[in-house]
Fold this sequence. Notes:
Protein name (chains A, B, C, D): tRNA(His) guanylyltransferase
Keywords (chains A, B, C, D): GTP-binding, Magnesium, Metal-binding, Nucleotide-binding, Nucleotidyltransferase, Transferase, tRNA processing
Binding site for Mg(2+) 2 (chains A, B, C, D): 29, 76
Oligomer: homotetramer
Family (chains A, B, C, D): Belongs to the tRNA(His) guanylyltransferase family.
Amino acid sequence: MACSKYEYVKLFEQNITLLPNTWLVVRVDGHSFHRFTSEHDFAKPNDIRSLQLMNYAAQRCMQEMQDIVLAYGQSDEFSFVFRRSTNLYKRREAKITSTLCSLFTSNFIFHWKRFFADLELKYPPSFDARAVCYPTDQNLRDYMSWRQADCHINNLYNTAFWSLVQDTSNPRTEREAQAILKDTDSAAKNELLFTQYGINYNKLPEIFRKGSTLFRRLSEVAASTRDGTSEVKRTKNLVVVEHGDIIGDKFWQENPQILSI
Amino acid sequence: MACSKYEYVKLFEQNITLLPNTWLVVRVDGHSFHRFTSEHDFAKPNDIRSLQLMNYAAQRCMQEMQDIVLAYGQSDEFSFVFRRSTNLYKRREAKITSTLCSLFTSNFIFHWKRFFADLELKYPPSFDARAVCYPTDQNLRDYMSWRQADCHINNLYNTAFWSLVQDTSNPRTEREAQAILKDTDSAAKNELLFTQYGINYNKLPEIFRKGSTLFRRLSEVAASTRDGTSEVKRTKNLVVVEHGDIIGDKFWQENPQILSI
Amino acid sequence: MACSKYEYVKLFEQNITLLPNTWLVVRVDGHSFHRFTSEHDFAKPNDIRSLQLMNYAAQRCMQEMQDIVLAYGQSDEFSFVFRRSTNLYKRREAKITSTLCSLFTSNFIFHWKRFFADLELKYPPSFDARAVCYPTDQNLRDYMSWRQADCHINNLYNTAFWSLVQDTSNPRTEREAQAILKDTDSAAKNELLFTQYGINYNKLPEIFRKGSTLFRRLSEVAASTRDGTSEVKRTKNLVVVEHGDIIGDKFWQENPQILSI
Amino acid sequence: MACSKYEYVKLFEQNITLLPNTWLVVRVDGHSFHRFTSEHDFAKPNDIRSLQLMNYAAQRCMQEMQDIVLAYGQSDEFSFVFRRSTNLYKRREAKITSTLCSLFTSNFIFHWKRFFADLELKYPPSFDARAVCYPTDQNLRDYMSWRQADCHINNLYNTAFWSLVQDTSNPRTEREAQAILKDTDSAAKNELLFTQYGINYNKLPEIFRKGSTLFRRLSEVAASTRDGTSEVKRTKNLVVVEHGDIIGDKFWQENPQILSI
Lengths: 261, 261, 261, 261
């Protein structure tokens, strides 16, 4: 029973590689998460436990894959940016995409209990992933801006939508809420939230409005000396999580290490 | 904060599709499973719990994705065959590959306890996946034969290897075992197993020697009538698991529905 | 001035290959041939010289590339079919496509004079090309049928269109001809040709209505013996040109060698 | 005879596109030019007529395709650089590659007589082509440097090789010449040329040593006024040909328009 006779079938593999010297972005997306969030009674419009679990899983992925320099998450999606020069798996698309997608899925489930202590997973959730190359820093920043703008737009809409639906004195059906919000612009949604529900949208937690940005930063950490007798400061390249604006220049100017790697 | 300004970045996506009217095979592989099996004290050369978990996870994937007509697993890998005519996700490679890889990972972890009752997962395992197209039935069968021949060759080697290492009266180091087996053919390994360890290789469980084949078969199942008063037979298209030979013609002749779909 | 420092740029090449064991079809198409035919006063609706030149160029390509088993031409396009098992240029798409496109272009110009004796080429024409894989014989035949049905539909339309425009007693503008033919079916066009212009469409030359099919056939050729004293018959695998139907089964049954290679 | 039944075959086309916002380089290469140059008695090591024909054909391609900003030719190859932002044929790889390859071939043959007045083409030459994307200016410049360094290395070797073979007083066979040059470095080849043949390599024509660079430059051209009475200067964006160094910074600093487009 020799293998050799059948090995020709390996030649049918394509092995698409991602163009060298470009930023690689892999976006992981929740698969059928509408059903998943509803069966697990996620808080609406945002479930903080879920966002924190997403962030935690993403952080673990970054610890595992040192070539990820930046990650951005919102809702049920997470984008991971590999440094331009990465040669991970020889830049084979299927290998990078599937491994990261699996690792994220795996961490999401493994650490579920840490964030949903009282809630059992009812069935195994899954994600999909895709890889895209961006040739310039500007293209990459525009990609990040695209995701953060998307976060803002969806969150403003969802906040207004669920305020109407969850309005205890005058609850609307989902269809009614949809009709009310149809064709309203941002200002109108802000206004509705403020006048009807006393919600100042801009005061809502940044994690909801801006999403989560993970990146590496040299940070001082407390450490014990070897003999354990005293404490010292050590410098480590830690993955940190922030929720600020990444569309403007400020974030990038304050963290020049991200794009310079 | 409009999205439109940034949406051009979507144009950088490639959306590779898999050639229509070909068998799609997605092979999911354990990622760094050498470390994973060792940290979780898997039995050597085969851990039946792990194989059963793999099979169970694969079965769940087949229940979720109706276009999978066949799956074959051995060791830490599983190959899934989608029917030629599938239009799942418009045959987009990244979407099919990442979704199935994630779903398999997810089920592997979710159902871990069912097979490893007493053993906690120490860290989240991950898998990678790749897709390949096969134009003809013969190419597909040769692919399946390749994996089953690979299973046989590795299992015979591993059985001999671990017999030498786990030999209580004369234990060998892994390096010694390797040296002993170097350049031996199948007959020699069979002979060594039989004369030194009383093992008739061909009597070992088929699941170890042949792997596991999952496919759909119309099966009679017992069901209650609606009023619950009596029991009836119903015909269902169930996913069944077998461990026989799939290299010869017999399996395919007995299950013509697999390739005819 | 060493090359080695710069050679890394070779890694940016993608080298897409065409799936093994599939029929490869490369279709070569005239580029801006509307202008080309008008500047060279091609007869309308068909210029027999041009069709013969196309056929001649295609024949030369088949003589150069032995793995082409079949070719079909109509108007300013030619489709070439490589046998499933071809390993030409390791099935690299860009290499196959560009080489054949260039070879066809080259022969078209080189042999121009043979068919347009009295007419000088005014400027160099060009073609583009694309490759497609077809997994089954049926897919390939459907591709061929698609091109021949396209030939028929266009030729019937063009014959009616140019009859109206070139009508000496009642010439129409191109816009008027278009308006008259808009929304007419085949029967109406046949009727118009017959009643107004006495043209029995089905009696028009097959090369116009059915295009040209080139394939290899074992043929007896007359040859001289080595000493030149007498003539003998030899069997050669010649490229022949036919203009019959290739949509029905007859052509394929009479020429089983084409698909069996 | 409807087309619609067969049109599904169009879905088998892949339509690979080239990553946006990258420099596109298409390199056209002579196909079997060893035979072609020998059957047409090209001068060795360089045939100036052929180089001028190549340049002329390239120039015509640049006039036809305005998005080509730069081209570099040497021996039987020509590289064409499209501006990063080009959207020619929606950046479809096969379309760009095959069209340019065909256009170059076509011009090469069409203008043959202009440079080989007394020599008839014996058979139609052909070329192949491939496309590569380069994300940064530096990658593009390294590509150009790679080709020019290659030109230098080959030309120095060929000059020495043909000097030995064409040496009237002591002609060597090609095999002997090869053996003499094996493992010699640049200095040794320069030395051999100078001491044995009185050739100062660095004084040889730049077109041989450096190849040909074509690019667009705003140039003053003499033109007549409309009434034809007087002559005026007009500014036009002409394709110019140079043979200087493009590895160093000077060329790029003097022609900043090339990369800034």
